[in-house]
Write a structure and sequence with these properties.
The chain has 251 residues and is an alpha/beta fold. It has helices spanning 85-90, 115-119, 131-143, 165-173, 201-208, 224-236, and strands at residues 11-20, 25-31, 43-49, 55-61, 71-77, 97-104, 122-127, 150-156, 178-184, 217-222, 244-248. The strands form 2 sheets. Strands 4-3-6-1-2-5 form a 6-stranded antiparallel beta sheet. Strands 9-8-7-10-11 form a 5-stranded parallel beta sheet, sandwiched between helices. The relative contact order is 0.16.
Length: 251
């Protein structure tokens, strides 16, 4: 007889800090008594309740690295016609209380615990705010050892849309096995080794070649069209389908 799944309860978190990351994406630190025990790649549900009782709920990936502390970071993009993201951008303030549930997820996490998957090379592919669960993995890697080879291919519209640009560049400059490549779709390449087009098979192959061996896992996160295109590019570059894990975001 197996144990019944643990029921996730809603609880109250407080916005402890807000920061602007790009013109459309803001960072929100949520604190709660007892903190949050989570794994890189997991998400939380957020629920808003209007005075008339109407509720709106969305899932947001955790961007902070697992570790001690009572706060998590959410990177929220303001979505056109969204119900939840406009509240965070236009109304929410430090000190506001928010209902949260989680962390949630056991599929899109790294490391996964198996010997090979926990130690072999990893490739991450992000589009826009789809960086959130992947930067949690990047940060987790930076704070823990050993230094598993990891490459991040991050697609943005313009250089101004690069989330955590300085942090990512500093991590690459450490030369400890982390590789960063940016695909700028509406402008010139940001740095040597970056790209000025949408992700394609040749680009995916270029980034994979920067790893010392074929990745044992690929994580792709972004909008539905982005995920389809990026996953197809990885497949066309020779990566096996069972290596790729995807996650899509909404509004």
């Amino acid at each position: 007889m197996t144990d019944a799944p643990r029921k996730l309860e809603w609880r109250t978190a407080t916005i402890s800090a807000i920061a602007t990351l790009t013109p459309r994406i803001r960072s929100f630190m949520l604190s709660a008594p007892g903190g949050f025990s989570f794994r890189a790649g997991q998400h939380v549900d957020v629920r808003l309740t209007a005075p008339d009782g109407y509720t709106a709920q969305r899932s947001y990936s955790i961007a902070s690295a697992p570790g001690p502390g009572d706060a998590i970071e959410l990177m929220i993009e303001k979505m056109r016609d969204g119900e939840v993201s406009p509240f965070f951008h236009d109304v929410a303030d430090v000190g506001d209380e928010i209902e949260v549930r989680g962390p949630i997820g056991g599929y899109f996490i790294w490391p996964e615990g198996q010997a090979q998957e926990a130690t072999g090379p990893v490739v991450l592919v992000a589009g826009g705010s789809g960086l959130a669960p992947l930067i949690s993995m990047v940060r987790h890697r930076a704070l823990s050892g050993p230094r598993i080879p990891m490459a991040l291919l991050f697609s943005v519209r313009t250089p101004e849309d690069v989330i955590c640009a300085d942090e990512l560049a500093t991590l690459q400059e450490a030369r400890d096995g982390f590789e960063l490549a940016l695909a700028v779709t509406r402008g010139a390449a940001w740095r040597p080794g970056d790209f000025s087009r949408r992700i394609d098979a040749d680009m995916a192959a270029d980034v994979l070649a920067r790893l010392p061996a074929a990745p044992v896992r690929a994580y792709v996160c972004g909008s539905n069209p982005f995920v389809e295109a990026a996953a197809s590019a990885l497949l066309a570059s020779g990566l096996a389908a069972d290596v790729i894990r995807t996650e899509r975001y909404g509004g």
